[in-house]
Batch of 4 targets.
Target 1
Amino acid sequence: MSPRKKKPRVGDEISWLRPLSPGGGPRYQQIVDLLGEAIANEVLRPGDRLPPQRQLAEALGVDLTTVTRAYDEARKRRLLEAHGQRGTFVKGAESELTQWVDLSLNVPPIPSQIDLSALFSQGLAVVTRHSEANLLFTYHLGGGRHADRQAAARWLAPALGPVAPARVVVCPGAQAALAAIVLNLTEHGDAVLTEPLVYPGLRTTVQQLGRRVVSVAIDDAGMRPDALEEACREHKARLIYLNPTLQNPTAHTMPAERRQEVAKVAARLGVKIIEDDPYWLFAHHAPAPICAIAPDLVYYVSTLSKCLSPGLRTAFVVLPDPSVEDRFLAAVRTFALMPMPLATALVTQWIQDGSAQTLLSAVQTEARARQQLAAQNFAQSGQAAVAEGIHLWRSLPPHWSARELARAAREGSLSVTPSDAFFVGTGEPPRAIRISLGGGRDRLQLVAALRNLSALLATPPSERTEVVI
């Protein structure tokens, strides 16, 4: 007798489905997201056959065209493949999933449910229709038009409450803003006080301007007020740098009480604070920024690069007093002459018409989903994930140093950031890496990369086999 042909496995029929959310975006996109999640979690596996479109439509209570559009979109994302009358199947793993995945660059994930091309085209069409072209292609040496500042104040309101537009300046990215603040408030050789792990761009800026980074001791709540006061007096510091919400790289959030204590020390000693706050919008219950507690002490920096897109090159700076604007902008122009007028106009339009909030909501949803996938991936290690933001901080087992792990990951076409890239403290850097979750092209690629990383973490360097050709 000839052997029977093995029937394709039907992927748990439709047990992977969940009810669609009325406020969750286009229904076909929600179906695609459910498919991607089921594939990433291996509820659906390569070769599984999906139910007929009509059956799925009935189960979800949607029309057939919605499911047809969802299947078409899933094929475009390389999740599914159609085989004529045989049906639609989960696509097998492709070699591109083993190509280079950069989890070292902290960028917001691109949300699959948003058509960025359409969003960009629509926003640009409105901008060009209501603006004179010559004004979009000439020098703008101020800190933004009144409309730009009003839009910025509106964007910052969830974190800061009402902000006078006169205090807000539009800058060509956070890096230029940070450099301008350091240049304005310190002199050559001065100390800038930070926590022992700090955003590398700040460290580079301080050193290139001839200033010094001096780390202040921390505890579980963050920078210690007693150590801060001691460092201010010892180094005659004029400036403190803090990234208090979902800190880069540790993803730690400074509690409200500690923020108040730090602000009191700064006020008593007459020291200004840079509050670099790119991740506040990702934190579900974030304390009020220090700027909301002590606005006259703080230069508050909020960039769109971490919550919308790096390509916008737009950051908003809230000044402690409008009177410092001229000096601040003069310093900005030593690094970048101006924000790009076309990008600034687009950002203002998006904030005014709600497109920026739509994009932010989609990025927040995608970031949460990726944090959940990371938590599932690392669950066996017993290390809890933050479940917020676009990066996580992963302690390493004793058999790996951060540099060795990063080097081994590169050999496996995967990039992560070792702790010494952030370390300005004394002694040895912690045995840890930062993993940026926005680098994977989609959730499926991210899951594959995280699994490869988990396998690498579990294998001591001495047990890794080298292939010699």
Note: The longest helix spans residues 355-378.
Target 2
Amino acid sequence: MTDFTGPLATFDHALSTAITPDAPFDALLKLTRETIGVKLFTFMTADMKTELAQRSYTSHPEDYPVSGTKPITYDRWFETVHKDRKSFVANTLADIATVFPDYELIGRLGCGSVINLPVVLGDTLVGTVNMLHEEHHYTPERVAQAQAWLSVPAKAAYLASQSLSTAS
């Protein structure tokens, strides 16, 4: 079992000293790298009133820029993450291809597994933490760790980023 004590303390300190809207997500990315492991990391916001999603943070700005919005698609991914409020997990590129049209780019980046962790506040899906790594990286143990140890930090990062966005 991964020891989260040190990485969580580092995350807490980084969140406490964050002064830009990206800083809380930088801290969440570092926490994720040190605990679960991640090659590609993004945070997508979800506006259920307008039914639009937007990438608000990315570890790979050239490949996955922070810009624009896209309509929310009502598919099995949506059912899992939004309706059931569970993480969507796929551990092969073939599985990813059944849901994500950008699967070829995902593969070129050396990724073949994904965890999409829902971020729910006020009984509303506000976003997802999207973690990608090589095929079969996200074992049942890592998925359980992500759900147990990253859910609250993801909420904190989202809220801190929102607060810093409105303050600037």
Note: The first helix runs from residue 5 to 16.
Target 3
Amino acid sequence: MPLARLMRPLSLLWALCLAVPALAQGTAPVPADADLLFRDVRVLDTAHGRLGARTDVLVRGNRIARIGAVAADSAGAARVIEGRGRTLMPGLIDAHWHSTFTALSQADLVASAGAPDALAAKVAAESEQTLLRGFTSVRDVGGPVFELKRAIDAGQVRGPRIWPAGATISQTAGHGDMRQPHERSRRFFGKPALAEEMGATFIADGRDEVLTAVRENLRMGASQIKLMAGGGTSSAYDPVDVTQYTLDEMRAAVEAAEDWGTYVTVHAYTVRAVRRAIEAGVKCVEHGQLLDRETLELMARRGVWLSSQTLRPSTESMDPLRREKRKPVLEGQARMWAMAKQAGVRLAWGTDFLFEPALNAEQNAFILGLREWFTPAEILKMVTHDNAELLALSGLRSPYSGRLGVVEEGALADLLLVEGDPLQDLQVIADPARNFAVIVKDGKVVKNAD
């Protein structure tokens, strides 16, 4: 069934999402004013790839208050978690996540066409599972997410911190043009596509429409803007090689975002698309698997981020057109990661799962795909410290105040107590159910398996 038709039930999803009760935490609630003491832990310094000596870490409110010996009076007033020499590290961060569309399959949308509350429950449940896999923050780069984020922040749904982009912004026949053949142009025929109505995308042509689309997302609370600058593998109308948006249109998006103190990230694979985006002032590129050395070196000189993935080979169950379009992307992946590392590009990692909820359980395992090009220390730095630096690029539009991706005094208390040493055996982070004994987000215990 056409994608736009499948998404029709989501037009009501978030009106109901606030009514979904928070799911059971599996641990007793902690009083809001209670301190939390991790006693006898080894702090993983992901910024420098070091595991420290045994120490204590005191959390007060939602911040790390002290690392080191804690006075007896402070310890007596705190809830104590016995570390027994285990590793305490920052929460994981997925820099390319789709909070709504990763929770739902197209079959879900068909089966639940008359029951949007069932879709809301699936999204809420997957939100919690994301958090329980140790991902305490995600950068959502496209889809209806604002109400989910508000529900999480209000404690009505459990999930990670979300940096939302809102609806992707696409030209006609671009990667975000999700219309079916029977859906005609809004500009000529006056009716928005269903994908636009439910907040998945804006189809915007020309400087004025691009400005309006960016400002609509900013009005709703976007922390960054996602623009489609090139062809995609999962879209119907655009070959991977095409370049999307003129320089003037792209500059309009950048100017509107910068006026709000934030940035534009673009979906793009090719040299031509990325070079145009760099000229327009874009600060981040999603994907980039078809880039050459010269363009990666240009990105490094300009301080432009590359947020990419560890893609797996196509499966027989995948749509034949998508399998064919993915071939050059998969072939370019190994070259891109190696060249980007050598060029000194600022790198981030994310999964980019869409409409395959069964795949979500492997979110942690996909991190291991980076081992072909990076050491465990480099990988742990990327999925915590470096991804947090990318989140911070939102500046004043960041929805949360404080430092993430580190275990340091004054930083936000998003923490994982891990069985084993990830620096020596990165495999431990691929099994969060077994190896993440305690998960803390914003100073609150969301999992305690001890």
Note: The longest helix spans residues 320-343.
Target 4
Amino acid sequence: MHPFPIDGDGYIRADTALSLGFSPQQLQRAAAKGDLDWIASGVYAVPAERTPEAQHRFEVMAATTSPAVAVSHASAGVVHGLSMLDADLSRLHLTSATSDVGYKRTRRHVHPGPLTPDDIVQVDGLWVTSRERTAFDVARTSTSGFPAALAAFDSALRTGGDRTVMQAYGAQPRTGVGVARRALTFADPLSENAGESWGRAQMIEGGLVVPRLQHEVFDDAGTFIARTDYDWVDENGAIAMVGEFDGLGKYLKYLQPGEDAQDVIRREKRREGRLQDLGIIVVRWTWADLKAGRVVSRIVAQMRAIGLPTPPPSRPNPALARRRRSA
């Protein structure tokens, strides 16, 4: 058990520890032994099991910010609770209102402005870029391109972001603005997580008809059957096929008291059987399928089997192929 003082935010701050008689060497030795986690310069914490987002938020909240230097990009996305795809959490991202040149350090990436008062908000005493500015910055700078841009905008809209404000950012000539503009035209708050956004991005890039999202299905007696991730209708407007993204987070989200993931999986299988009883084709995919780029081919195969219109064959997208190889 370490003897160091912990403040109300869960941090062990070197200046406080030193004022109580501890030495810098004691803190350094504790960190070297793994008794403390290094968070930022002069800031430590008790080791704990944390998701990458939770760990990064811990690091972000230890930062010193001002209206002139605000947390931004993926770091601000974590603060706002955005569901991001391939977010760069290797560094603390900041934007400086007073600099037109950015720079990177081992644990910090300072982006150039501009940064106006309308671009920033305070969250838990921390100056961060607004939800809309954050989503737009993530969308235009992500190395994962269109899918990551779509995920950022979907999440921003789902959590209360203003589409009009984000569109205004698109009018400014910035790096990556074209990708961001295109993604924003397809953004939908009904997409529930980054995995669902990535699947829809692959459909869009593959030329598929954009499916309806989160639609409720009832049987002929009016009994609720399911709320599906995606669905496609036939020429009569009846649901012919649904798509389901099977992410672990989804199963955890639907856990009921006393259940584990296997209980949710069994319930999902019963739900799928009831959809099939209605004559609806169910297509499922996982993170591995998204990474391998198998989603569109799987959907198209089922569409052809049941007579839904499919896009004409197209030449491979080089950018998409590069993302698959790097995944």
Note: The chain is about 45% helix and 20% strand.
